[in-house]
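Continuing the batch. This is chain 6 of the set; chains 1 through 5 are on the previous pages. Same settings as before, nothing changed between runs. Recording input and output for traceability.
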Amino acid sequence: MYQNKFIAFIDILGFGALVENSENAPEIAQSILDTLLSMSPDKLQESMYVSINEESIPTSELIGLKNIIAMMNKGMNNAHHVTISYFSDSLVLSADADNVIASQSILEILSKLSVELWDKYSILIRGGITVGKLVHKDNGPLFGPAMNRAYFLESKEANTPRIIFDQHCIDLFRETSTFSIFDSLIEVDDKYSYFSLPTCLRYITTASSLALSENKQLESARKAQTEILPKIQKIISSSISQKIKDKYIWLEAETIRTI
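Output for chain 6:
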Protein backbone atom coordinates (compact mmCIF):
# COMPACT_ATOMS: atom_id res chain seq x y z
CA MET A 1 0.00 0.00 0.00
CA TYR A 2 2.74 2.48 0.92
CA GLN A 3 4.85 4.01 -1.85
CA ASN A 4 8.30 5.54 -1.54
CA LYS A 5 7.84 9.29 -1.99
CA PHE A 6 9.48 12.62 -1.48
CA ILE A 7 7.22 14.71 0.74
CA ALA A 8 7.27 18.35 1.81
CA PHE A 9 5.17 19.57 4.74
CA ILE A 10 4.82 23.37 4.73
CA ASP A 11 3.35 25.72 7.33
CA ILE A 12 2.40 29.39 6.92
CA LEU A 13 4.00 31.29 9.80
CA GLY A 14 1.75 33.60 11.77
CA PHE A 15 -1.40 32.32 10.11
CA GLY A 16 -3.30 31.82 13.36
CA ALA A 17 -2.68 35.40 14.43
CA LEU A 18 -3.83 36.67 11.03
CA VAL A 19 -7.09 34.77 11.38
CA GLU A 20 -7.64 36.15 14.89
CA ASN A 21 -7.10 39.70 13.61
CA SER A 22 -9.31 39.24 10.56
CA GLU A 23 -12.68 39.15 12.32
CA ASN A 24 -13.09 42.93 12.21
CA ALA A 25 -10.62 43.66 9.39
CA PRO A 26 -11.96 42.79 5.91
CA GLU A 27 -8.64 43.57 4.27
CA ILE A 28 -6.88 40.91 6.39
CA ALA A 29 -9.61 38.38 5.63
CA GLN A 30 -9.16 39.10 1.91
CA SER A 31 -5.40 38.65 2.25
CA ILE A 32 -5.95 35.27 3.92
CA LEU A 33 -8.30 34.21 1.12
CA ASP A 34 -5.86 35.35 -1.57
CA THR A 35 -3.02 33.52 0.19
CA LEU A 36 -4.95 30.25 0.35
CA LEU A 37 -6.05 30.56 -3.29
CA SER A 38 -2.43 31.04 -4.33
CA MET A 39 -1.68 27.68 -2.64
CA SER A 40 -4.43 25.73 -4.42
CA PRO A 41 -3.24 22.59 -6.26
CA ASP A 42 -4.35 23.91 -9.66
CA LYS A 43 -2.55 27.22 -9.15
CA LEU A 44 0.66 25.58 -7.94
CA GLN A 45 0.72 23.04 -10.75
CA GLU A 46 0.51 25.86 -13.29
CA SER A 47 4.02 26.94 -12.26
CA MET A 48 5.60 23.49 -12.53
CA TYR A 49 6.41 23.06 -16.19
CA VAL A 50 6.33 25.12 -19.39
CA SER A 51 5.51 28.82 -19.22
CA ILE A 52 5.65 31.65 -21.72
CA ASN A 53 6.56 35.31 -21.70
CA GLU A 54 3.21 36.72 -22.75
CA GLU A 55 4.62 40.22 -23.21
CA SER A 56 6.78 39.04 -26.12
CA ILE A 57 4.03 37.13 -27.98
CA PRO A 58 1.80 38.88 -30.58
CA THR A 59 -1.83 39.00 -29.40
CA SER A 60 -2.98 37.16 -32.52
CA GLU A 61 -0.78 34.17 -31.59
CA LEU A 62 -1.27 34.15 -27.83
CA ILE A 63 -4.47 32.10 -27.53
CA GLY A 64 -3.18 29.33 -29.80
CA LEU A 65 0.15 29.21 -27.99
CA LYS A 66 -1.57 29.06 -24.59
CA ASN A 67 -3.59 26.07 -25.78
CA ILE A 68 -0.43 24.28 -26.90
CA ILE A 69 1.29 25.04 -23.59
CA ALA A 70 -1.75 23.76 -21.67
CA MET A 71 -1.64 20.47 -23.60
CA MET A 72 2.10 20.11 -22.97
CA ASN A 73 1.68 20.82 -19.25
CA LYS A 74 -1.16 18.30 -19.02
CA GLY A 75 1.06 15.65 -20.56
CA MET A 76 3.94 16.53 -18.23
CA ASN A 77 1.65 16.42 -15.21
CA ASN A 78 0.40 12.97 -16.15
CA ALA A 79 3.96 11.66 -16.55
CA HIS A 80 5.54 13.53 -13.63
CA HIS A 81 2.70 14.09 -11.19
CA VAL A 82 3.07 16.05 -7.98
CA THR A 83 0.25 15.42 -5.51
CA ILE A 84 -0.74 18.56 -3.60
CA SER A 85 -3.04 18.91 -0.59
CA TYR A 86 -3.71 21.92 1.60
CA PHE A 87 -5.72 22.42 4.74
CA SER A 88 -5.97 25.49 6.95
CA ASP A 89 -2.42 26.90 7.09
CA SER A 90 -0.60 23.75 5.91
CA LEU A 91 0.47 22.50 2.51
CA VAL A 92 1.72 19.02 1.56
CA LEU A 93 3.40 18.11 -1.72
CA SER A 94 4.64 14.65 -2.69
CA ALA A 95 6.06 12.81 -5.69
CA ASP A 96 7.30 9.31 -6.44
CA ALA A 97 10.89 9.03 -5.26
CA ASP A 98 12.00 7.47 -8.56
CA ASN A 99 10.48 10.27 -10.66
CA VAL A 100 13.29 12.81 -10.93
CA ILE A 101 11.33 15.53 -12.73
CA ALA A 102 8.37 15.34 -10.36
CA SER A 103 10.48 15.27 -7.19
CA GLN A 104 12.62 18.20 -8.30
CA SER A 105 9.46 20.09 -9.30
CA ILE A 106 8.54 20.19 -5.61
CA LEU A 107 11.57 22.42 -4.99
CA GLU A 108 10.69 24.61 -7.98
CA ILE A 109 7.10 25.04 -6.75
CA LEU A 110 8.15 25.87 -3.19
CA SER A 111 10.79 28.40 -4.23
CA LYS A 112 8.27 30.29 -6.37
CA LEU A 113 5.57 30.05 -3.69
CA SER A 114 7.91 31.36 -1.00
CA VAL A 115 8.72 34.45 -3.06
CA GLU A 116 5.09 35.06 -4.07
CA LEU A 117 3.76 34.85 -0.51
CA TRP A 118 6.40 37.24 0.73
CA ASP A 119 6.15 39.69 -2.17
CA LYS A 120 2.34 39.92 -2.20
CA TYR A 121 1.36 39.27 1.42
CA SER A 122 4.55 39.59 3.57
CA ILE A 123 4.06 35.97 4.64
CA LEU A 124 6.84 33.50 5.44
CA ILE A 125 6.77 29.71 5.32
CA ARG A 126 8.57 26.95 7.19
CA GLY A 127 8.77 23.27 6.35
CA GLY A 128 10.38 19.86 6.32
CA ILE A 129 11.22 17.59 3.39
CA THR A 130 11.93 13.87 3.64
CA VAL A 131 11.59 10.68 1.64
CA GLY A 132 9.86 7.53 2.84
CA LYS A 133 6.71 5.49 2.97
CA LEU A 134 3.55 7.43 2.20
CA VAL A 135 -0.03 7.26 0.97
CA HIS A 136 -1.03 10.53 -0.68
CA LYS A 137 -3.95 10.66 -3.10
CA ASP A 138 -5.41 13.61 -5.00
CA ASN A 139 -8.43 14.79 -3.00
CA GLY A 140 -8.00 11.71 -0.81
CA PRO A 141 -6.06 10.09 2.04
CA LEU A 142 -2.73 11.37 3.30
CA PHE A 143 -0.79 9.37 5.90
CA GLY A 144 2.36 7.37 6.55
CA PRO A 145 5.69 7.43 8.40
CA ALA A 146 7.09 9.98 5.92
CA MET A 147 4.22 12.35 6.66
CA ASN A 148 4.90 12.07 10.40
CA ARG A 149 8.60 12.73 9.83
CA ALA A 150 8.04 15.74 7.55
CA TYR A 151 5.66 17.24 10.12
CA PHE A 152 8.24 16.66 12.88
CA LEU A 153 10.95 18.39 10.85
CA GLU A 154 8.73 21.41 10.25
CA SER A 155 7.27 21.74 13.75
CA LYS A 156 10.22 20.73 15.95
CA GLU A 157 13.43 21.18 13.98
CA ALA A 158 13.17 23.97 11.39
CA ASN A 159 12.74 26.67 14.10
CA THR A 160 13.30 29.59 11.72
CA PRO A 161 11.61 30.59 8.40
CA ARG A 162 13.25 27.88 6.29
CA ILE A 163 12.56 24.47 4.78
CA ILE A 164 14.92 21.75 5.99
CA PHE A 165 15.84 18.37 4.50
CA ASP A 166 16.37 15.04 6.20
CA GLN A 167 19.97 14.03 5.49
CA HIS A 168 19.04 10.83 3.64
CA CYS A 169 16.60 12.88 1.58
CA ILE A 170 19.12 15.48 0.40
CA ASP A 171 21.61 12.67 -0.26
CA LEU A 172 19.07 10.97 -2.54
CA PHE A 173 18.35 14.24 -4.32
CA ARG A 174 22.09 14.76 -4.92
CA GLU A 175 22.47 11.35 -6.57
CA THR A 176 20.87 12.88 -9.67
CA SER A 177 23.19 15.03 -11.79
CA THR A 178 20.40 17.47 -12.69
CA PHE A 179 20.11 18.45 -9.03
CA SER A 180 23.12 20.72 -9.58
CA ILE A 181 20.73 23.36 -10.94
CA PHE A 182 19.51 23.79 -7.34
CA ASP A 183 22.97 24.53 -5.90
CA SER A 184 22.09 28.21 -5.49
CA LEU A 185 18.90 27.26 -3.62
CA ILE A 186 20.49 25.10 -0.94
CA GLU A 187 22.42 26.19 2.16
CA VAL A 188 23.92 23.98 4.88
CA ASP A 189 24.41 24.64 8.58
CA ASP A 190 25.89 22.37 11.25
CA LYS A 191 22.80 20.14 11.26
CA TYR A 192 20.64 20.50 8.14
CA SER A 193 20.59 21.34 4.46
CA TYR A 194 17.83 23.86 3.86
CA PHE A 195 16.48 26.69 1.77
CA SER A 196 14.89 30.00 2.80
CA LEU A 197 13.33 33.09 1.25
CA PRO A 198 16.72 34.71 0.47
CA THR A 199 18.05 31.56 -1.23
CA CYS A 200 14.77 31.21 -3.16
CA LEU A 201 15.27 34.72 -4.49
CA ARG A 202 18.88 33.91 -5.35
CA TYR A 203 17.88 30.73 -7.17
CA ILE A 204 14.97 32.26 -9.10
CA THR A 205 16.97 35.25 -10.34
CA THR A 206 20.11 33.31 -11.30
CA ALA A 207 19.42 29.63 -12.05
CA SER A 208 15.73 28.86 -12.46
CA SER A 209 13.85 28.60 -15.73
CA LEU A 210 12.54 32.12 -15.08
CA ALA A 211 16.10 33.49 -15.06
CA LEU A 212 16.45 32.56 -18.73
CA SER A 213 13.69 34.87 -19.93
CA GLU A 214 12.60 38.41 -19.19
CA ASN A 215 9.02 38.42 -17.90
CA LYS A 216 6.89 39.93 -15.16
CA GLN A 217 7.55 37.05 -12.76
CA LEU A 218 11.31 37.51 -12.99
CA GLU A 219 10.92 41.28 -12.72
CA SER A 220 8.86 40.85 -9.54
CA ALA A 221 11.47 38.49 -8.06
CA ARG A 222 14.28 40.95 -8.76
CA LYS A 223 12.27 43.76 -7.18
CA ALA A 224 11.55 41.60 -4.12
CA GLN A 225 15.25 40.81 -3.88
CA THR A 226 16.21 44.49 -3.74
CA GLU A 227 13.48 45.26 -1.20
CA ILE A 228 13.78 42.28 1.14
CA LEU A 229 16.34 43.70 3.56
CA PRO A 230 14.65 47.07 4.31
CA LYS A 231 11.30 45.25 4.53
CA ILE A 232 12.68 42.83 7.14
CA GLN A 233 14.36 45.64 9.08
CA LYS A 234 11.11 47.60 9.17
CA ILE A 235 9.34 44.58 10.67
CA ILE A 236 12.11 44.13 13.25
CA SER A 237 11.74 47.75 14.37
CA SER A 238 7.96 47.43 14.75
CA SER A 239 6.04 46.42 17.87
CA ILE A 240 6.14 42.64 17.66
CA SER A 241 6.86 40.00 20.27
CA GLN A 242 10.45 38.98 20.88
CA LYS A 243 9.68 35.44 19.73
CA ILE A 244 8.56 36.69 16.32
CA LYS A 245 11.31 39.31 16.18
CA ASP A 246 13.95 36.60 16.65
CA LYS A 247 12.76 34.87 13.47
CA TYR A 248 13.15 38.09 11.50
CA ILE A 249 16.56 38.75 13.02
CA TRP A 250 17.62 35.31 11.76
CA LEU A 251 16.14 36.13 8.35
CA GLU A 252 17.97 39.46 8.26
CA ALA A 253 21.32 37.76 8.91
CA GLU A 254 20.50 35.05 6.35
CA THR A 255 19.65 37.69 3.76
CA ILE A 256 22.88 39.64 4.34
CA ARG A 257 24.90 36.42 4.10
CA THR A 258 23.29 34.88 1.01
CA ILE A 259 22.25 37.77 -1.23
